[in-house]
Design brief:
InterPro entries: PGBD (IPR029526)
Structural class: mainly alpha
Pfam families: DDE_Tnp_1_7
Largest sheet: 2 strands, antiparallel
Organism: Oedothorax gibbosus
Distance between the termini: 95 Å
Shape: elongated
Protein name: PiggyBac transposable element-derived protein domain-containing protein
Order of helices and strands: HHHHEEH
Radius of gyration: 34 Å
Number of helices: 5
């Protein structure tokens, strides 16, 4: 370890390494200030996520600096907020297009399924909760299940694919 004293530091007589560190640490403060102005971070209890957001902040700052260092930088990126917005939109564009196609395929399959309900047309009313018709009213058991023959609502206690009356 070099313990040479820096004569230019005056009365404090600090080692040269400390003086050099103090002279060059301004960049860290500038990066912290830029990251706090428009941060990509979100509150999280998981340390990995916090580290990821910190890395993302530094990466976006560095990428903007690189973009602005070209001969003719785009004027719209003078503001970091605009740069972050455009960067985010460019990063999600391909995923959004894939997701849109997936949704359209899903909607098409739903349209096909509901266009011709077929023999189970009576089961459309199954989604609403109703009281089991076999239980006493005092129990007031609500259920979505129904008898596959008469389509009346039945609870789990009475559910055997067919209700007790249809089995008989």
């Amino acid at each position: 370890m070099d313990e040479a004293i820096d004569e230019s530091s005056g009365e404090t007589s600090k080692p040269e390494i400390i003086t050099f560190n103090n002279m060059t640490k301004g960049a860290v403060d500038v990066v912290d200030e830029m990251a706090s102005a428009y941060s990509t971070a979100r509150i999280s209890k998981r340390w990995r996520v916090v580290v990821f957001f910190s890395l993302l902040n530094v990466a976006t700052i560095n990428s903007r600096i690189l973009l602005l260092s070209v001969k003719e930088p785009p004027l719209k990126y003078k503001n970091r907020r605009h740069f972050l917005k455009d960067l985010a939109l460019q990063l999600i564009t391909s995923h959004a297009a894939d997701r849109e196609m997936e949704v359209l395929r899903h909607e098409e399959s739903l349209r096909r399924n509901f266009a011709d309900p077929g023999p189970s047309a009576k089961t459309q009313n199954v989604s609403c909760k109703k009281r089991c018709y076999l239980c006493a009213r005092v129990k007031d058991r609500k259920t979505n299940s129904c008898c596959s023959k008469c389509y009346k609502n039945i609870c789990k206690e009475h559910n055997h694919a067919l209700c007790a009356n249809c089995i008989e």
